[in-house]
Amino acid sequence: VEPAMNLIQKGETQLLDAASTGGQIRIGASDTICRYFLIPYLERFHKAFPGAHIKVINQTSMKCAELLRNGLVDLTVVNFP
């Protein structure tokens, strides 16, 4: 559980850093997550931090995990069965 919590804290830190510096955050997300979960949060984040650039890469959950492992996204939001 501790490694997962550390990853979550790292993701939160990256989001806040990108927001405060006008940087970019790359998010990998599965189709269902993008469509039904993520968009309202991204809209609120963008309103709160208009200088931050958010790039969402829509892939399967397994592909998102691979993108994260290879450093091609900063965080992923996926669902696993």
UniProtKB/TrEMBL annotation:
InterPro entries membership: LysR_subst-bd
Residues in coiled coil: none
Record-annotated LysR substrate-binding domain positions: 20-78
Record protein name field: LysR family transcriptional regulator substrate-binding protein
Pfam family, one: LysR_substrate
Database matches in Gene3D superfamilies: Periplasmic binding protein-like II
CDD domains reported in the protein's UniProt record: PBP2_LTTR_substrate
